[in-house]
Amino acid sequence: MNTLRKTEEFYKPFETEKHQLNNDVMDELHHEFLDIYNSVDTTNIKSFQEKLTVLLAHSKKHFSQEEELMDAYGYPTSKEHKDEHNKVLAEMQYFLDLSRTLFGQKMLKAYYMEKIPSWFDLHLLSMDSDLAYFLKKVQ
Ligand SMILES: [Fe+2]
Ligand SMILES: [Fe+2]
To answer: How far, in Å, is the centroid of ligand 1 from the Cα of 95?
Structure first.
């Protein structure tokens, strides 16, 4: 069935090799992030708006938990990491604000489908893996 195929193509799995950082707190947050991300109904434009709202709330929790770890253990590049978190939260809020019009909803959908997955991969491979590595040494 066409709808099912579409959903399967869209699905972004948790890839152990790429995404697992061997920090229990962070790994759980990242699993949760993808669970929310994948629960979107790609056939319904309103669903992107709903899921981005949930993803924004979850990301606030996700980022503040990482930032608590940075502060607790004196992580040296916390400023850059926190700036990146704040940039993403502002971006999500921007697209939610934009989604009051149909044009804005289409922009939000494009952001959700194209930008978020590549951001997630890059952030985990760079900043989050560096933080997890640092925590392994000090915890
Ligand atoms: Fe993270
Ligand atoms: Fe992070």
So the answer is: 20
